[in-house]
Amino acid sequence: MSKLETQPIKIALVGNPNVGKSVIFGFFTGRYATVSNYPGTTIEIARGDFEIDRPGPAGPKNGVLIDTPGVNTLIPMTEEEEVTRDILFKGVDGVIQVADAKNLRRALLVSLELSEMEIPFALTLNMKDEADSLGIEIDKDRLASSLGVPVISTVAIEKKGLKDLKNAVGSVRLSLFRATYPGDIEEAIEKIGGYLTETGPSKKSLALMILAGDKSIDRWLPTTLAKGDLEKIEQIRRDLSSRYASGLSSVIHGRRLKAVDLLMASCLRKETVRGNKWQDWIGHICLHPVWGFVVLCAVLFLFYQFVGKFGAQTAVGWLEEDLFGNYLNPAAIKIFSKIFFFSPFLKDLFVGPYGMITMALTYAFAIIFPIVLTFFIAFSLLEDSGYLPRLAILLNKAFKIIGLNGKAVVPMILGLGCGTMAVMTGRIMDTKKEKIILTLLLALAVPCSAQLGIILAMLSALPFWATSIWLLVVLGSFLVVGFLAAKILPGRRSNLILEIPPIRKPTLFNIMAKTVARLEWYLKEVVPLFVLGTLILFLLDRFQLLARIEHVASPLVVRFLDLPPKATEAFLIGFLRRDYGATRFFDLFRQGNLDVIQTLVSLIVITLFIPCLANLLMIVKERGNRVAMAMVGFIYPFAFLIGGIVNFFLRIKA
Hints:
Blueprint: H1 3-6, E1 9-15, H2 21-29, E2 33-37, E3 44-52, E4 61-67, H3 79-89, E5 94-100, H4 104-116, E6 121-126, H5 128-133, E7 136-138, H6 140-147, E8 151-153, H7 162-168, H8 183-193, H9 203-211, H10 227-241, H11 248-267, E9 268-270, H12 277-287, H13 291-339, H14 344-351, H15 356-385, H16 387-394, H17 396-400, H18 409-415, H19 419-425, H20 432-445, H21 449-459, H22 464-488, H23 508-542, H24 545-560, H25 566-576, H26 578-590, H27 596-608, H28 613-623, H29 625-653
Parallel strand pairs: 1-4, 1-5, 5-6, 6-8
Antiparallel strand pairs: 2-3, 3-4, 7-9
């Protein structure tokens, strides 16, 4: 048996966003999947093993399935699209293209690009049930004949057609589907192809990317071509561009759309829409410029009741105070006191004030876990119902002011549950600039639910004017910093391109599958950060560095903010656990050690303060050391400066 025969076949799942690729990936690979960042990016790629059924005497063969990020084009406009394109560049043996049967046009644009790249593929028309409900009929046999590849209809969430799709993987084929370009473009494609090597994608597809102005391949081309050849290729592109006022990219895209429309005309028939009237009505209301915000307020209220009240208060109270406080932690203290009777250092490492069990695991499982569990359930409900794209569109104009688009609403809502995961969810933003702005605003002015609950409890005891000032300062900081960051930071921002799916009834299986997958991420990625942060704090305390930090910071806290010396400890603990920092201020307030102005100032600073250590470590992981340190260097002084300014003007008035 040759070495080639013993190597697993590499298959990529490719498709537009929100077409059901993850469900198909789960069916093919089961639990045998690994998730890791694509090299040099923050984009996570899932890989899993599966068995490919091949026709003839060859029999079954091992395969590796790669779940790529959703794309609208393989001429990248986003980091996700660039990652998908690069995976295809580096060589796959075939592709399963997943299409939304209701939106065949945008799927066939990707089919055409795969065909031009000369990558064998099979096409699955997913969500067939929704297409049927809309009266959309696709002549599957004619489509398969025109494309020259297998075409399978599926309803992934109900597992309908997935066995047929899996059987078709061994029969992926090259497609003959092509677009016709003007003669001078075809001539330029041939000239550029003469300079390109045989490695990677087809010469024609690479030449088209160059002519369309795809700058993302500039890092790749110099590794395969001589400098002189690169200059000649660029000259060909410039000469051709001068002939088209509308731009080569528009011409190429227009010719592709024409080829797609001709194909659709031969295989697509749409009857009178037979959609569910109630679902259509709800979907329309969610996008209404007035009623849409009424729906949003209702959704946020229910969301907060479930996550903020039940998750962050009821569930956390039972786990932290009853289970951990009365049973697990006392038992752990008793056991480790006996095991490490000879070493107070080791005993405190596990069950001391900054112990791995009494702080790290208590924090991770008694405080954060119930919040993220309820949030993931609620988020999966919103996601599965089709509401989130409508919310993104509703708030798109507002987010444009701060250099973002409507997609930012998802991590913003997540930030009210737990900022650590919100930073990770920022990957949905399309450009590096947007991801940095989003991360900065999450770190600056979006308190997590545990902290927000304590803040609201303190504000409820203050006069209305104090609550109003807190809200205006926090929202004002959010808008001003976002607006200035959008003007100052280099880079581009993207337009909002979203499919609006129909309003659906969420399925229990889908919600459970998504929640379990996200909890697995939490256990693997976030819990270790809590342990690391607690270990750092333990060592600082052991070597008496915590006391020194408090001593150095006291002049700023006492003189500039007019807060009592004990407030320094609250800020320091707030860096590790924001809710604990707020709790220290709450205790000072209840003990009568803070007046109204001091309470307001402390709440403003702790809200604008850099988020907890776990969140900061996630920012380092997602955005890199330099960006994380730059944010720390801005947010710390900004929070204290705003607090000091508010204190100054209120004291003058007083």
